Amino acid sequence: MKVIVLGGDGFCGWPTSLKLAKEGHEVTIVDNLSRRAIDLELSSGSLTNIASIRDRIKVANEKIGKIDFHNIDIAKDFAGLRNLIADVKPDSIIQFAEQRAAPYSMIGDSERRYTVDNNIVGTHNVCSAIVEVDPSIHLIHLGTMGVYGYSKEFGKIPEGYLDIEIKSTAQDTQILYPANPGSVYHMTKCLDQLIFQFYHKNWGLKVTDLHQGIVWGVETAETKLDPALVNRFDYDGVYGTVLNRFISQAANDVPLTVYGIGGQERAFIHISDSARCLQLAVENPPADGERVRIFNQVSEVQSVKGLAQILADQTGAEVQFVDNPRKELAENELEVANDGLRSLGFEPVLLNTDLIEDVKFIGNETKHNFDKANVLSSPKW
Ligand code: NAD
Ligand code: USQ
């Protein structure tokens, strides 16, 4: 199949592109390299030494399969995006290209507006370009578990839709699960859902929206094949996600920074599983006319303090409870359905000894890049 991967230079997009190419698909990466620019803006960046996009593409073509690259800003260059789609004629387009850090989106006015402009306009441009070029192209979008609000208010979280009964008519129906964002970033993912719902209703757009949990780990079978293919690994207080931060902290003898009492439960998935799920979505498009298909792309639920304890037990790291810089529930209980991807063949890898392997890799290969000043750098909101 031909696949365009928007945001294919990023943490999830790069290993997914390699995986798809390895499986024999023809991959075209589109990325404006804005994450590399934000690394400079934040004086932070990947703990691993990521190669330039030019070297990544060269080595990927030598060692893995067919991957092409185009530097296009999908929010600002609609014509460039539309023309590329018309030239490539993809079977599917994966949309990873959004500003994805909740803390970044809460720093201040310019970061709030950038996140909304970039994510909403970018995603809308993709839908609009597909409708112009060929509405049969399958759009796969990376949503987030955060659209649901992490609560058990309505029981186990279903895959995107909620069964309800309308009291006045005693009618049973289904609605899009009530959106409950916790940051401007998460708000953009909630708005993306409405864009898809409307484009499907009006133009029959074929969409899979993958509500993904927090991705952890760094390497996949493909990124290990050459140092130039190594994946990025964020560890700072803005882009670093909780388990990867804990892994980098354990590897560098820094106490694990549990925010608040660590009672927040979240869904997790390993980076290899994330790429595998994208492969399953690409190879199994929804049927013609099927409503927006929503899958929860998650492997398991853990509490933040539980994660810290697992790592402390495995590595001897110290656990430190620090003031929570975020406005969020101190504790929540979460239970999530993931039957959709499982029905396509997804078998999740659970937190296990890989964790200690990642700590060793991060400790051995990247110690010289670790900057302690980046550990407690999260903005307060
Ligand atoms: P990332 O920041 O590492 O990668 C995003 C990529 O998109 C970057 O390379 C960036 O340069 C590019 N990009 C951003 N705006 C662009 C634009 N306007 N035009 C072209 N390229 C643009 O993020 P990631 O961790 O790989 O996340 C990818 C997607 O998956 C995001 O949409 C995110 O919301 C979602 N997601 C990520 C996680 C996670 O834990 N990392 C969890 C759930 C969902
Ligand atoms: N946390 C800590 N200590 C830390 C960092 C975080 O206790 O050092 C806590 C946070 O307070 C929060 C939880 O860990 O309760 C998760 O935080 P996170 O930064 O790992 O994840 P989040 O901000 O939710 O965002 C990440 C990705 C985002 C994706 C989302 C999936 O950056 O792109 O959408 O995970 S989910 O959380 O399932 O909505």
TrEMBL record:
The organism's place on the tree of life at top rank: Bacteria
SUPFAM superfamilies: NAD(P)-binding Rossmann-fold domains
Residues annotated as domain NAD-dependent epimerase/dehydratase: 3-288
Protein's pathway: Bacterial outer membrane biogenesis; LPS O-antigen biosynthesis
Family to which the UniProt record says this protein belongs: Belongs to the NAD(P)-dependent epimerase/dehydratase family.
Name the UniProt record assigns to this protein: NAD-dependent dehydratase
